[in-house]
Amino acid sequence: MTKHSTHSADWSDRLRVHGAVDLRAIDTSGTPGVLDKDAAEEIFDGTSRSLAKLQEKLFADSLSGGKRSVLLVLQGMDTAGKGGTVKRVAGPMDPQGITHHAFKKPTEEELAHPFLWRVEKELPAPGHIGIFDRSHYEDVLVPRVHELISSEELTERYAEINEWEKRLVEGGTTVLKVMLHLGRDEQKNRLLRRLDRSDKHWKFNPGDVDDRALWPLFQDAYEVMLTNTSTEHAPWHVVPADKKWYSALAVQQILDEALQALDLDWPPADYDVDEQRARLLAT
Amino acid sequence: MTKHSTHSADWSDRLRVHGAVDLRAIDTSGTPGVLDKDAAEEIFDGTSRSLAKLQEKLFADSLSGGKRSVLLVLQGMDTAGKGGTVKRVAGPMDPQGITHHAFKKPTEEELAHPFLWRVEKELPAPGHIGIFDRSHYEDVLVPRVHELISSEELTERYAEINEWEKRLVEGGTTVLKVMLHLGRDEQKNRLLRRLDRSDKHWKFNPGDVDDRALWPLFQDAYEVMLTNTSTEHAPWHVVPADKKWYSALAVQQILDEALQALDLDWPPADYDVDEQRARLLAT
Predict the structure, then answer these.
(1) Which residues lie closer than 8 Å to B107 by C-beta, 6 or more apart?
(2) Sign (positive/negative) of CA torsion B106, B232, B235, B7?
(3) Over 70: is that where the pLDDT of B258 sits?
(4) Which of A125, A240, B6, B198 is the most buried (most CB within 10 A)?
(5) Do B198 and A266 touch (CB under 8 A)?
(6) What is the dihedral angle through the alpha carbons of A234, A238, A243, A247, rounded to the nearest 10 degrees?
(7) Beta-carbon separation of A267 and B63 below 8 A
């Protein structure tokens, strides 16, 4: 975000994390900023059109030497709707300018490297919007819940992440971080639905039930992570996620605001338009 | 395609290349297989929905160990509509399961490697649909037109490509190749439109006019390439591309037929559904 931008950042301001985070104080079924589903879908559809245009500008900018890119990091408990949000928000944009990566449990090779190694490789090129479904933040969540590393190491990782993201931002990447904040009961409903439908069985993992038992530990880990890594240059947003239409809208609006703040114009021609027209007409 | 598939392959059969190719004999403004734009859009919208489901099945299949993937190669002259086709066809699918790569002029590093090196790196993972906007076929088109390599080397490259694609197919990748066949006059119109609109100037390159002067040489290079690399395992399709609605529909239908031919089912649960439901309800 540029400091003196005249663009609105209502959604980002509304959902942005400040200071110490208390997740229990944030209603997972809330819909701050919009009245109901109908209103949400009207806004969503309108923004889908303008967002596709902004993305094209970002892409065009890079072809004439611009270094700007956007990284959208999505985190959340199982079934929080990360995949569905990507699908809805990115769907209307040009796949040419989107880089999507879903981070799984680290492989042996990945574990043998510093934890940012595998993430670095997936960063969006200039002109691209990169979307991370899970991210380097798994490396401060899972180790904390399962007590795999010391609290000193955790603190070092937070600092390392903050510095690394700062360099990204200085290099021209807008870093947007969103936690999809799901309620425990709603997670149960969503997992049950996966068990009820044979076309959803592949999405279910017995491990999801194990993780559910660790729910309070995960919430704690999220709170500490949000508190320690929400920075001026790369703030976290907590988006209530019990209503899928709300989380899709909120993520879309945060992305749209960030793209608007880049104040991009169509790059001017680096050739003489009339001369090229004459050449072309002669062919 | 499985040999005894009961699925239709009408579009693939209709547009597939057989034997020696004469591009001048194929009307670039034709619309084989569909009456008009309205009919095309009705078919397109219906298939968009079923295609998204098929893509999800392909993705699900890979999570339970399936090795299948699909590679769609798009080639064509400048402004043939490769980017727009990707956008329309891939738009309704889940970005999570799509890998898109636009190949540019090779870099120094890429030129220092065998020509298939940079392509190999972008192949779709199991469960993914990979889309190539330009491809390894640039390496038999451009060198032929500009006489950068000998005809023996070209012949070797065709053979190398055929063998390499055969290995891909044996490894579980369905390889679909499409040439968007644009008319020379329509290219002129499209280039002029890019010059007429300041929001399209970034898409225009003076080099496009240079390439236009080499049109007959490029058409020859395409014909020889199509004739030499359309194989049983990885056939070429020539899609008339003067009408954007037609080329989008044809590419979509070819992709849809290929996915249908995989005969994918939702993978069965590899856990006891009732047991997991009981565990979940206890949480």
Answers:
(1) none
(2) negative
(3) yes
(4) A240
(5) yes
(6) -10
(7) no
Closest residue in B to A273 (Cα) is B195
- In this predicted model, what pLDDT tens digit does every residue of B112-139 receive, in sequence order? 999 999 999 999 999 999 999 999 999 9
Task: Give the residue numbers in A contacting B (CB under 8 Å), as ranges.
Answer: 60, 63-64, 83, 86-87, 90-92, 94-96, 98, 100, 102, 131, 133, 188, 191-192, 195, 198-199, 201-204, 206, 209, 212-213, 266-269, 271, 273, 276-277, 279-281, 283
In chain B, which residues have their Cβ closer than 8 Å to the Cβ of A191? 280
pLDDT in tens, A246-279: 999 999 999 999 999 999 999 999 999 999 999 9
- For B1-24, b/e burial (b = at least 16 CB within 10 A) is beeeeeeebebbeebebeeebeee
CB < 8 Å to B192, chain A:
277, 280-281
Residue A70 is inside which H or E element, if any? strand A69-76
Among B78, B195, B251, most A C-beta atoms within 10 A, so best to mutate, is B195
Sign of CA dihedral B247, A100, B177, B25: positive
Cα–Cα dist A179/A76, whole Å: 5
Query: What is the Cα–Cα distance from B157 to A152, expressed in whole angstroms?
Result: 56
Give which of B46, A271, A99 is closest to B54, Cα–Cα: B46
Q: What is the ipTM of this complex?
A: 0.89
> Does A188 sit within 8 Å of B280, measured CB to CB?
yes
Residues of B in contact with A271 (CB under 8 A): 204, 206
Residue of A nearest to B84 (CA): A94
**Mean pLDDT of the B271-282 span:** 96
Closest CB from B90, B100, B202 relative to A60: B202
Q: Of the candidates B226, B221, B215, which has an alpha carbon nearest to the alpha carbon of residue B142?
A: B221
- Residue A279 to residue B90, Cβ atoms within 8 A: no
What is the pLDDT at residue A5? 52
**What does pLDDT average to over chain B?**
95
Question: HEC profile for chain B?
Answer: CCCCCCCCCHHHHHHECCCCCCHHHCCCCCCCCCCCHHHHHHHHHHHHHHHHHHHHHHHHHHHCCCCCEEEEEEEECCCCCHHHHHHHHHCCCCHHHEEEEECCCCCHHHHCCCCCHHHHCCCCCCCCEEEEECCCCHHHHHHHHCCCCCHHHHHHHHHHHHHHHHHHHHCCEEEEEEEEECCHHHHHHHHHHHHHCCCCHHHCCHHHHHHHHCHHHHHHHHHHHHHHHCCCCCCEEEEECCCHHHHHHHHHHHHHHHHHHCCCCCCCCCCCHHHHHHHHHCC
Q: How many cross-chain Cβ pairs, A to B, lie less than 8 Å apart? A: 118
Identify whether the C-beta of residue A126 lies closer than 8 Å to the C-beta of residue A70.
Answer: no
Instruction: Please tell me the pTM assigned to this model.
Output: 0.93
